[in-house]
């Protein structure tokens, strides 16, 4: 027996790999059969670890020809001996007297790493024509030193670049790239692949677009995982490029008949009731069949018409629809606001206490909200493609929700919820006002004894809801009888925050996600509740962080800096210069709520776009103190009568803003 018994399991991996590579040094065509045999060795180790009570897995008959072949390879029998297998029945079998599950699992993982490396070498040998690199053949040296990783990485990247638009043919190579990027034993390959990240990102982008058109879900999932690894969400310097690519993915998901370069897209027209925008939107979208949804009706350019109003939608009514839709959600019983004013679904446990969990109502409502979010993303595609342009050729302003969705809610929607205590505390802190800090976000909370923190008599429960509707929710099974101790306070705080920020949102987020995928997903090909398939086939879920998705949907709150920006880009007619100066003075003196309402009056949205405002015009309007301002929100143009004072301007402008909020009108 070799010295393997004195090594740790990771040492066995090196020994076994070197021994097998030595045996195959002169016949690289045997890598495939070697990999298969090592796979059987993995099963021999894993079976008794996973099912220790099954006696059949603890005896290996040496008379079995397949077993004999596996154990004939150098190092294989040594690994079994080191794990506790001994000869029994006069040498007819190997028997495991006592199973050390941890040791067996560790050994199986290390041996499996050898199997993967042999598979990589086989791929390299089979596709040796794709690279000038020789087959590595120095088995006595460490894996990372004998040239194999460089040859593997070069072959994989070169092949992906050479196959052009043949996305279907790239499936096996995408699987190999994924293995190099994520398998622990591929660290050297991973480093070498990263060195060619820029060209590989370009290739993967083209592959993703083609796979979306082909509806190849499995390969698309693999390609997006690789792309997200090399082109991670959250990097500020790549945000614009990632947003543009997400838009390209939306275009790729359109049916050929909807392609912009072939014919103008169809129109999606919603007839709504002002003041009942959410409920009338639910009713309007209910009219579309599931077949129509799968065929892409929600992906079309949107126009809005309000019952009893004469206004025609040149873009302003559409933008105001998204803005007002979110503001109605803010007062809807199925939603609540965080301390910073962001939207999150009502706590599912609190809703249950108030008997608000009529599943059909919740499902349809949340699915509709998700659909409207997806529609907003598609309107941005049409805006950037030129479908939604103004008469003078200017691009229309963006379509934004008037209230942002809480970042942690969007993380749940993306199937990437905060999980660790630090992540949960950061998620809560992001929705907490600095002036009213939540003590649970403080890193020092758990550094003090429970008695000093006011947590001396806590159990693993939390209260959902308020007053008579309050409901006790157990954080763990039997939590009401489990006292929080110094040893368990970290576990308690994590369970508490996870229940509030993740678990209580899961059902609503699932229905919301389903609606979002109705709009931006791939023709009903994805189950919204499948955490792998629905996440890794939606570019907006993996290439954008929750914060970036939040900003894309809702922009930023309107404050003084937004007014300064509006003033910088404003084009003011000479005949309206005096009134314009009064307007700026007024906007500096009012509160943010009033600024946001005036901002919506002139742009159609009460939120600032993520990329800012590029144009704003102030023109004169006929009339004096008795006339009202008029805004063309479709073009961000404000017409001001020749008022005699700032006080008159303020009074007339606020009246016009309030009237426009209630209905389309030309005062």
Automatic annotation (TrEMBL):
Domain HECT, residue spans: 294-664
Metabolic or biological pathway: Protein modification; protein ubiquitination
Transferase as UniProt keyword: yes
Keywords: Transferase, Ubl conjugation pathway
Zinc-finger as UniProt keyword: no
Secretion signal, residue range per the UniProt entry: none
Reaction equations catalysed: S-ubiquitinyl-[E2 ubiquitin-conjugating enzyme]-L-cysteine + [acceptor protein]-L-lysine = [E2 ubiquitin-conjugating enzyme]-L-cysteine + N(6)-ubiquitinyl-[acceptor protein]-L-lysine
EC number: 2.3.2.26
GO MF, any single term: ubiquitin protein ligase activity
SUPFAM superfamilies linked: Hect, E3 ligase catalytic domain, PUG domain-like
Pfam families xrefs: HECT, PUB
Positions of the catalytic residues: 634
UniProt cross-references to SMART domains, sorted A to Z: HECTc (SM00119), PUG (SM00580)
PANTHER family: E3 UBIQUITIN-PROTEIN LIGASE NEDD-4, HECT DOMAIN UBIQUITIN-PROTEIN LIGASE
Name the UniProt record assigns to this protein: HECT-type E3 ubiquitin transferase
Organism whose genome encodes this protein: Chrysochromulina tobinii
Source organism phylogeny: Eukaryota, Haptista, Haptophyta, Prymnesiophyceae, Prymnesiales
């Amino acid at each position: 027996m070799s010295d393997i018994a004195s090594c740790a399991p990771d040492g066995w991996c090196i020994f076994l790999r070197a021994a097998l590579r030595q045996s195959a040094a002169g016949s690289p065509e045997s890598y495939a059969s070697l990999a298969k045999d090592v796979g059987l060795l993995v099963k021999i180790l894993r079976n008794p670890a996973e099912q220790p009570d099954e006696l059949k897995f603890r005896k290996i008959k040496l008379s079995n020809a397949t077993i004999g072949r596996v154990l004939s390879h150098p190092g294989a029998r040594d690994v079994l001996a080191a794990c506790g297998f001994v000869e029994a029945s006069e040498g007819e079998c190997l028997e495991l007297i006592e199973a050390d599950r941890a040791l067996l699992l560790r050994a199986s993982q290390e041996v499996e790493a050898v199997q993967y490396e042999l598979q990589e070498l086989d791929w390299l040998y089979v596709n040796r024509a794709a690279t000038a690199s020789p087959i590595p053949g120095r088995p006595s040296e460490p894996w990372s030193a004998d040239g194999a990783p460089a040859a593997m990485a070069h072959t994989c990247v070169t092949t992906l670049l050479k196959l052009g638009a043949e996305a279907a043919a790239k499936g096996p190579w995408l699987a190999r790239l994924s293995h190099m990027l994520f398998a622990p034993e591929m660290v050297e390959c991973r480093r070498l692949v990263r060195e060619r990240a820029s060209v590989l990102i370009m290739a993967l982008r083209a592959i993703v677009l083609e796979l979306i058109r082909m509806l190849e879900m499995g390969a698309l999932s693999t390609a997006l995982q690789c792309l997200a690894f090399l082109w991670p969400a959250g990097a500020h310097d790549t945000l614009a490029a990632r947003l543009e690519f997400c838009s390209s993915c939306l275009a790729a998901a359109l049916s050929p008949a909807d392609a912009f370069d072939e014919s103008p897209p169809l129109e999606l027209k919603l007839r709504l009731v002002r003041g009942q925008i959410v409920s009338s939107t639910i009713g309007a979208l209910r009219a579309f069949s599931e077949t129509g949804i799968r065929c892409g009706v929600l992906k079309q350019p949107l126009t809005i018409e309000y019952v009893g109003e004469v206004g025609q939608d040149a873009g302003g009514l559409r933008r105001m629809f998204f803005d007002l839709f979110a503001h109605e959600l803010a007062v809807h019983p199925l939603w609540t606001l965080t301390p910073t004013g962001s939207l999150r679904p009502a706590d599912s446990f609190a809703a249950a206490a108030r008997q608000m969990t009529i599943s059909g109502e919740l499902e349809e409502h949340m699915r509709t909200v998700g659909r409207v979010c997806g529609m907003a993303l598609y309107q941005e595609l049409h805006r950037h493609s030129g479908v939604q342009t103004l008469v003078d050729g200017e691009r229309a302003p963006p379509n934004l929700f008037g209230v942002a969705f809480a970042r942690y809610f969007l993380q749940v929607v993306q199937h990437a919820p905060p999980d660790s205590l630090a992540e949960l505390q950061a998620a809560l802190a992001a929705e907490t006002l600095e002036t009213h800090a939540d003590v649970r976000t403080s890193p020092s909370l758990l550094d003090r004894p429970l008695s000093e923190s006011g947590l001396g008599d806590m159990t693993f429960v939390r209260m959902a809801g308020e007053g008579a509707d309050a409901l006790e929710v157990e954080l763990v099974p039997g939590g009401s009888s489990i006292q929080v101790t110094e040893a368990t306070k970290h576990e308690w705080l994590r369970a508490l925050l996870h229940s509030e920020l993740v678990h209580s949102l899961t059902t609503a987020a699932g229905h919301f996600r389903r609606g979002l995928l109705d709009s931006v997903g791939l023709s009903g090909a994805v189950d919204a509740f499948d955490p792998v398939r629905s996440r890794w086939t939606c570019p907006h879920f993996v290439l954008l962080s929750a914060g970036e998705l939040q900003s894309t949907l809702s922009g930023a709150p309107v404050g003084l800096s937004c007014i300064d920006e509006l003033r910088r880009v404003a084009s003011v007619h000479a005949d309206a210069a005096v009134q314009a100066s009064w307007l700026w003075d007024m906007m500096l003196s009012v509160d943010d709520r009033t600024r946001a309402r005036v901002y919506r009056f002139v742009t159609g949205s009460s939120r600032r776009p993520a990329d800012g405002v590029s144009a704003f015009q102030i023109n004169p309007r006929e009339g004096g103190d008795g006339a009202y301002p008029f805004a063309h929100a479709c073009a961000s143009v404000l017409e001001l009568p020749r008022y005699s004072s700032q006080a008159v301007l303020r009074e007339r402008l606020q009246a016009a803003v309030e009237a426009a909020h209630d209905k389309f009108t030309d005062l």
